[in-house]
Amino acid sequence: MSLGPLIKVARGEAPADLILARARIVNTFTGATERGNVAIYGGRIAGIGDYKEARETIDLGGRFLAPGLIDGHTHLESSLLHPTQYARAVLPRGTTSVVTDLHEIANVSGLSGMRYIRDWARRLPLDLFFMAPSCVPATGLETSGAEVTARDIRTVLRWKNVPGLGEMMDFPGIINGDEGVLEKVSLARGRVVDGHAPGLTGKELNAYVAAGIGSDHESIAWREGEEKLRRGLRLMIREGSSEKNLETLLPLVTDKTYKRCLFVVDDRTSADLVNQGDMDAIVRRAIRLGLDPIRAIQLATINPAEYFRLDGLGAVAPGYAANLIVLDDLHDFRPDLVYYRGRLVAQGGRALFKVPPIKGGGLTRTVHVSPFPIEALRIPAERKDDPVIEVVPGQIVTRKREPAARVSGGEVVADTGTDILKLVVVERHRATGNIGLGLVAGFGLKDGALASSVAHDSHNIVAVGANDRDLYAAVNGVEKMQGGLVAIRAGKVLAALPLPIAGLLSDAPLEEVNNRLESLETAAARLGCTLPAPFAVLSFLALPVIPELRLTDKGLVDVSAAPRLIAQTRLTENRPSPA
Amino acid sequence: MSLGPLIKVARGEAPADLILARARIVNTFTGATERGNVAIYGGRIAGIGDYKEARETIDLGGRFLAPGLIDGHTHLESSLLHPTQYARAVLPRGTTSVVTDLHEIANVSGLSGMRYIRDWARRLPLDLFFMAPSCVPATGLETSGAEVTARDIRTVLRWKNVPGLGEMMDFPGIINGDEGVLEKVSLARGRVVDGHAPGLTGKELNAYVAAGIGSDHESIAWREGEEKLRRGLRLMIREGSSEKNLETLLPLVTDKTYKRCLFVVDDRTSADLVNQGDMDAIVRRAIRLGLDPIRAIQLATINPAEYFRLDGLGAVAPGYAANLIVLDDLHDFRPDLVYYRGRLVAQGGRALFKVPPIKGGGLTRTVHVSPFPIEALRIPAERKDDPVIEVVPGQIVTRKREPAARVSGGEVVADTGTDILKLVVVERHRATGNIGLGLVAGFGLKDGALASSVAHDSHNIVAVGANDRDLYAAVNGVEKMQGGLVAIRAGKVLAALPLPIAGLLSDAPLEEVNNRLESLETAAARLGCTLPAPFAVLSFLALPVIPELRLTDKGLVDVSAAPRLIAQTRLTENRPSPA
Questions:
Q1: What number of H helices and E strands is found in chain A?
Q2: Residue B574: pLDDT band with limits 50, 70, 90
Q3: C-alpha to C-alpha distance for A140 and A545, rounded to whole angstroms
């Protein structure tokens, strides 16, 4: 856009498109509020002052006006929502910009998955920024659907709206000087490089930071966050559906450090987005925990904008995008009006924009399972001494528990009495026939099985169950839907949510996704499940980059110092990919 | 440099080049200090911790270790020093990085002037960053030696070490939507654009900021600085040789604003650099005025680094450049050891590096004056009602004083009794024959004349004098030297400093420049001059972008709302440029 007309409006010599009059403006530069009229032209803020002439004037009557919220790190696929529906979920919450790392869809469909999201994003009243996924696949310990090579990263870094390289989960690769990993970081020189370094400390942390990593969102302890801040990483304080670190890390936000801190969501389910909120929920909770409201807003606006170099976002100031929220009370932070580029897109928690009908493009039919008999789910008795994966409620780390298998009829079987259930991961990209088998504690199922094609990072089919028959039906149910979530009892579907887009995203409206998710959780609870969000927990059990013990299609993985397979899958057959 | 070896040192698995042991490290991220050993490899910091193995270890015994200072805005030509000698002056003061706007040399020699500095800079142990000059010439109200076109700016923006566009002095051009000016700003989209907007407020300030300007260093009042901060400009707090704004603006630096503030020098004479210091002098004074020492250091290190996006500068942290200073006392801030990329380059105020001998390249012989008779300096009696330029001590603004000319023999003459002296500006780039004539109050000369080829922004020859004979000799003296400063009495040279490089820079060592400057100031004082730095004052009298009244080769300029010529030069002749 040419600057001339905007400048003319700023000078007060041409009418604005819109004036938000009598606003109490939250100034994220000075941490104060000021009163004034905000003139908007061509989607941007022209000025703050006594502007009067506009095609439309809204009298805010002293309500607060703040910049739209910016989520500095999220995987939007975690919502299971198509981008259009994701926008419907987050915009009414005041989120107008999202920095997303399309790690999940890239693991299934590579660059074409990313292009799919990018192209839809262009049609939405939401700024989507993409970090080039650095670790697809994150490790060789599971089978992914695609690889994002250094060459692909170079391509993505040339796209618009790409601030840099996404979370470098392969911190062992960095620390060990793996040339391939370092090459990827080097490609992003002069750009932002996000980190992911759970528990890293001392010289290993030095080594990781020395490579040029700029942030971390994996701190779960005060001491860990403090050291990472000290070494120069931006502290991304995460409060998602699975990981909640706000209360622990908030004391790190002081007069001296707050500009190096930001709030992020990382992973948030569709239900949480609708029922609790998005970034607004974090801001609200931070304020309730004692953070100054304007500072809380800064951590969700100007701070991510500065870190990611999102020019023109994060403040109510001349030349900035008119991404704005209006609210009544800074302490009970509830965005009412939401403007995107000067256009009212949500009010009172409701989206006001229409979205185009969803089409799957080339991303449907991505589930390719090699046919297998139910006997392939048997765990031979000789594996009775394998450790058990133990779920840690409210966290994505797991514990490695001492062996506790029940053996019956020459095989290891689920034991609902001691809550040691069977866990199965079936490779679903290349029909290799890989099936990982293990045991998990913490779900509480007394009967039936749950299965999902959302299984970080490679998104094979993961299933937990009380018996093989239901496990088998659950995996088959996911395959039949070409991706999705399912709850099974006695071989029958109790509830299901199809995710036909890459096996990750629904093509249904937000409301339907939530209804089906609720049905799934009700079904799981009826099966005896004691976890509040069993499918989210399930989705992380195959993630071999977070300690301590995981199951992938290749086998049981011990994710300690040097992640390794401790019980390898016996491959039933190994066919080439049908693609 | 490959990252692998640095990472190995960071892990403690390979020896460092240098360990600075038992340091008390100033952490510019957290605003605190911490104790540790700093391992350096390949000019970069590998890590902080209990590192022990290195080719060289320096035991700091608990002395403070801070990042090298970064000057976010300066015109190095103001020192009159060649870059090699400038480096000798500032490095012992702890300045290891300088963001310079080569506005002066570009006004004389355009891109070739900038290339000259850039190419010398590569040979120095100092980071020089260049802002592409946005306003060469700044106005059409004087004759410059060169023009920097939009095309040139595009070229410079592609150079390495160019963070963006230099101070946009043509704020009227921006506010009035001048297409040529806006084009230049647009070229720097996504980069840093420095501002220069003395006194701008309200809607005009909105208009200026809306164009994408990011900073301002011209605030001279609390209220002005406060408004600029509020509108989103970084507040560059200037403390130079001519303008001293630190004391006035320091109260603006609070817990809520300090990250948006930085210290800059803008213009500092060689004598001040040697006798008072560079950025260290500002930091010292800020601390004396009550600013927390670590915060003062932040305003001179990490804050400019973040604003200009100078990755890897401004902190003692893994991966950062080993640009470091060592000092004993944070309150009496006096850098002792200075490291550049891990190499000791100064100690105890002395430079330890050798510089190559200075060569003028193609930049000598830039003074081209059309021959003129002494009568050309006469001011006809009919101009007796012209206003008088009044010097404001310690500031570069001037006042427009009521007419006060003494008329004698049919012409306006200097009057030492009322301290109304004659001011002359002789065009010296294209031998146009332009001679601007006017009156100035505040120098106090009782006899003789002073002349200089340093005359912002176009650097024509400016002279102030008590009589025409000495004025004439002074201008001729500068021409003969092909640039420089001179003090004249009775037609004879009392003292002189040749500036053969573009008429702006000396080819002599720092010490000689200072000795000669001192002689010049002594000579001026003997002539009755009451100003402490008369040549600096003189150099700003032709600057038609700062209020209120100026003299250029084209005539007397009223620099109020819309700068205009109020008494135009009668051109004696108008020959084409000899170039």
A1: 16, 31
A2: very low
A3: 11
Read off the tokens for A557. Answer: 């993985």
Rounded to whole angstroms, the Cα distance separating B29 from B37 reads 18
Please report, rounded to a whole number, the percentage of residues in chain B having pLDDT higher than 90.
91
Residues 180-209 of chain B with CB under 8 A from chain A are 182, 185-186, 190, 202-207, 209
pLDDT tens sequence across B134-169: 999 988 899 999 999 999 999 999 999 999 999 999
Contact present, A80 and A265 (Cβ < 8 Å): no
Q: Check if the beta carbon of residue B466 is closer than 8 Å to that of residue B451.
A: no
Q: Residue for token digits 């609870």? A: A525
* Spatial separation of the C-alpha atoms in residues B170 and B136, rounded to whole Å: 10
Question: CA distances (Å), A515 to each of A462, A504, B206, in order?
Answer: 22, 17, 48
CB atoms within 10 A of CB A341: 17
Cα B566-B569-B571 angle, rounded to 5 deg: 155
Judged by DSSP in three states, B16 sits in strand
Taking alpha carbons only, the member of B403, B398, B438, B439 closest to residue B547 is B398
User: Who's near B491: CB < 8 A, 6+ residues apart?
Assistant: B469, B470, B473
Helix (H) or strand (E) holding B46: strand B44-49
- What is the maximum alpha-carbon separation in chain B? 87
What value does the mean pLDDT take over residues A540-568?
Answer: 87
Tokens of B500: 């053969």
In tens, the pLDDT along A26-75 reads 999 999 999 999 999 999 999 999 999 999 999 999 999 999 999 999 99
Task: Quote the ipTM score.
Answer: 0.92
**Beta carbons of B451 and B493 less than 8 angstroms apart:** no
Give the tokens for residue B574. 């108008």
Size of interface A-B (CB pairs under 8 A): 167
Give A-chain residues touching B1 at CB under 8 angstroms: none
Contact (CB, 8 A) for A294 and A26: yes
- Pick A30's closest partner by Cβ from B175, B229, B315: B229
List residues bridging with A421 in a β-sheet: A440
Q: Which of B544, B503, B418 is nearest to B135 (CA)?
A: B544
Transcribe A160-177 into DSSP letters.
TT--EEEEE--HHHHHTT
Instruction: Check A29 against B203: CB less than 8 A apart.
Output: no
CB A12 within 8 A of CB A51: yes
The answer to whether the CB of B548 falls within 8 A of the CB of B558 is yes
Q: What are phi and psi of A161, to 5 degrees?
A: 60, 30
B42 touches chain A (CB under 8 A): no
Nearest to A206 among B49, B211, B212 (CB): B49
Strands A164-168, B337-340: pairing kind: unpaired
Tell me the whole-structure pTM to 2 decimals: 0.93
**A210:B10 CB<8 A:** yes
pLDDT digits (tens, 9 = 90+) for A202-228: 999 999 999 999 999 999 999 999 999
Cα–Cα–Cα angle for B162, B165, B169, rounded to 5 degrees: 145
A109 near A145, Cβ under 8 Å?
A: yes
Is residue B79 helix, strand or coil? Answer: helix
Give the pLDDT band (50/70/90) at residue A545. Answer: confident
Beta bridge partners of B21: B59
- Say yes or no: B229 contacts chain A, CB-CB below 8 A: yes
At A128, is the secondary structure helix, strand, or coil?
A: strand
Beta-bridge partner residues of A426? A435, A461
Strands B337-340 and B343-347: antiparallel
pLDDT tens across B369-414, in order?
999 999 999 999 999 999 999 999 877 889 999 998 999 999 999 9
DSSP H or E stretch at residue B400: strand B398-401
Q: Which residue has the tokens 């692998």?
A: B4
For A45, the closest chain B residue by CA position comes to: B210
